[in-house]
Amino acid sequence: MIIKDKLKSSTVNEIIEQYPYTESFFEDQKLAVDDQEKTLEEIYAGLTVEEREDVVFDLDQFADSLSSHIKNMQEFLGENDSVVAKLSILAGNNKDGKKENYDKLDIHSGEIISIVGPTGSGKSRLLADIEWTAQGDTPTERQILINDEVPDKKWRFTGGKKLVAQLSQNMNFVMDLSVIEFLNLHAESRLIDNQAEVVERIFNEANRLAGEQFGREAQITSLSGGQSRALMIADTAILSSSPIILIDEIENAGIDREKALELLVGEEKIVLMATHDPILALMGDKRIIINNGGIKNIIDTTAEEKELMQELKVLDKVLTDLRNDLRYGKNLSRISEELAAVKNT
Ligand SMILES: Nc1ncnc2c1ncn2[C@@H]1O[C@H](COP(=O)(O)OP(=O)(O)OP(=O)(O)O)[C@@H](O)[C@H]1O
């Protein structure tokens, strides 16, 4: 909360120090500030009638527009948000109009939740309900709460800051920019302090995720599908201020899925992903089972399943190696030999 009276009794230096973006506000307002050590009240008291005519006449109004400027900037920068510690999904109805098989699901920051179910069962619909912060106004009639409260409607509309960032299979760049130009442009729009450092980190992380490396000067339109997704995931994890990430099927994305998830949850975000892939599903702390448009069950990933995941990773590596051998024109050997080779490495 920005208290207007506090602004009035603060010196210009104090205000700029706390809210650096107000410097341009003072310039735009043509407020004659000869001494930045004076408070706004003192400055206003010293203005002649002519000088007052050049700026907002009344100190109260000036403090009002200064505080709304600060509020807008904080929102834009994602500074003003109460942290999303908890996202709750309250039960709605399945496709037959029957109540779902649970009452309330609480998801906490840093948790990964996978969503599984047959084709057409309603996985994407659930992600869409969260993105829309549904309040009984979608086909499922589910309700979404943030920190146990009905979220502000502003979350529904794209602004500088969104509640939810979406990552999907189809991500294409349309701008003609190099990787570094694109990252700098995005970082500039977020007005972060340590831009060069952040851009470098995103670039490095994206390359860690991508199957094939790409350079700083590569044109983003020329990146492969996997490289674009790697770039978008690293960019979303590090630069996006959205506390919730929704992922719709990244299985065939040609990226290191495990590293991608680690990067996303490392930033204390809530991650929900719809998937048909057992490795991805077991990476979740819980999985939501969807059937016929409704949540049928919510299962905690067991210790045994986490162990099984290690075996699945071996299988996955075998398949990846086979794919690569195929691509590079090699003859494929028996899988049992492949499996043994991986196990021995
Ligand atoms: N509870 C519901 N009530 C009414 N319609 C629903 C409900 N849940 C889902 N639907 C609708 O069913 C259709 C299929 O759902 P959706 O696309 O979410 O499935 P999916 O599980 O993501 O499928 P896929 O695995 O093929 O991507 C959509 O049109 C969706 O709006």
TrEMBL record:
GO molecular function terms noted in the UniProt entry: ATP binding; ATP hydrolysis activity
Residue intervals of the ABC transporter domain: 84-318
Protein name: ABC-type lipoprotein export system, ATPase component
Family membership: Belongs to the ABC transporter superfamily.
The organism's taxonomic lineage, starting at the top: Bacteria, Bacillati, Bacillota, Clostridia, Halanaerobiales
Pfam families reported for this sequence: ABC_tran
Organism: Halanaerobium kushneri
InterPro entries in alphabetical order: AAA+_ATPase (IPR003593), ABC_transporter-like_ATP-bd (IPR003439), ABC_transporter-like_CS (IPR017871), P-loop_NTPase (IPR027417)
Record keywords, A-Z: ATP-binding, Lipoprotein, Nucleotide-binding, Transport
